[in-house]
Amino acid sequence: xxxxxxxxxxxxxxxxxxxxxxxxxxxxxxxxxxxxxxxxxxxxxxxxxxxxxxxxxxxxxxxxxxxxxxxxxxxxxxxxxxxxxxxxxxxxxxxxxxxxxxxxxxxxxxxxxxxxxxxxxxxxxxxxxxxxxxxxxxxxxxxxxxxxxxxxxxxxxxxxxxxxxxxxxxxxxxxxxxxxxxxxxxxxxxxxxxxxxxxxxxxxxxxxxxxxxxxxxxxxxxxxxxxxxxxxxxxxxxxxxxxxxxxxxxxxxxxxxxxxxxxxxxxxxxxxxxxxxxxxxxxxxxxxxxxxxxxxxxxxxxxxxxxxxxxxxxxxxxxxxxxxxxxxxxxxxxxxxxxxxxxxxxxxxxxxxxxxxxxxxxxxxxxxxxxxxxxxxxxxxxxxxxxxxxxxxxxxxxxxxxxxxxxxxxxxxxxxxxxxxxxxx
Length: 425
Description:
Layout: E1 3-7, H1 12-27, E2 31-36, H2 41-46, E3 50-53, H3 58-61, H4 65-72, H5 80-101, E4 108-111, H6 116-126, E5 130-132, H7 155-185, H8 192-201, E6 206-208, E7 225-227, H9 243-250, E8 256-259, H10 268-282, E9 286-289, E10 306-309, H11 314-317, E11 323-326, H12 330-339, E12 343-345, H13 352-362, H14 379-392, H15 394-407, H16 412-424
Parallel strand pairs: 1-2, 1-4, 2-3, 4-5, 6-7, 8-9, 8-11, 9-10, 11-12
Helix pairs in contact: 1-16, 5-7, 6-7, 10-14
């Protein structure tokens, strides 16, 4: 019996896809543990995986609603240094937890983008193989700029240069945590950049968990960097939508979904009122998913055409929608494409503008509305117009249906299983 440890850290969208990976590995006969934050222990255990704790839980670190709001917004001019300090503190706290998560019987480490720069030191100390499983493209390429740069191309040379700079920024971010971790593990000193370059020189495989439908594999990537398709969050085969949701769906035409995931903490009252007004103006029904923003109909006037929900599998909900409005995190963006429904992208920060631009270029989404624009005087009219565009244009739905059919041919977790078993052999 082989023992596989998956490590993943961050928000719900950074964790949930790895439950699908773990469940596929477990079904193939492997013992699988997923190390992540306490908030996601029920998610991990429901998938039949062993839960192991990682510190630095983003949910419990959000002690002040005002701080949470600031963290959800793009960094203001001059605010990048403070953001880097916060990220470095998160990483430093994470390092010790990753070292503790691996047991003596661990045969293979599977690492998310957040945990990989630390997990490689652990794999080196234990003498076991590791495999990186990022959810967004990270290796430099001339095809596009780094995903955190806002999605605007800098030309092939500029894109590659920016990509290399992005990796150096990550190296700096992990430098202190890596130094402490290597000392703790009895490893000789080595910078994150040195460890990364060793891995690149050795051709270490990296499997990217997104679809070629959205991002074809760049032609200038080295051998071993492969785009394999999305890893979908696990949910039980007999899962159903809650009765209150089914009743709402049966009471009228397909509604529009609005949710911002782990973004916009503390802005629930304003965003709920804005969403309700835009839906009414577009003359469509709506489902608000509370998320970290705490969207809810209690902030709006009584309306039978609105429903608030908590966590439900997007795989079950999105196909029943006429359109989906969201922040365009990697997993949520892919779930909309998988469902074959048009998207209204409202990107907030990080990689979200990149995915929003990809959806629009594919023809399955309206032009993105930057989240900051929801604070303007014309926000209701602009959001309502986008919702109307998404729901009333047959061509956009046709593009969404075609993209969903292409996406359905991919088996991302199957490719992870093959790669894992090659490494274990």
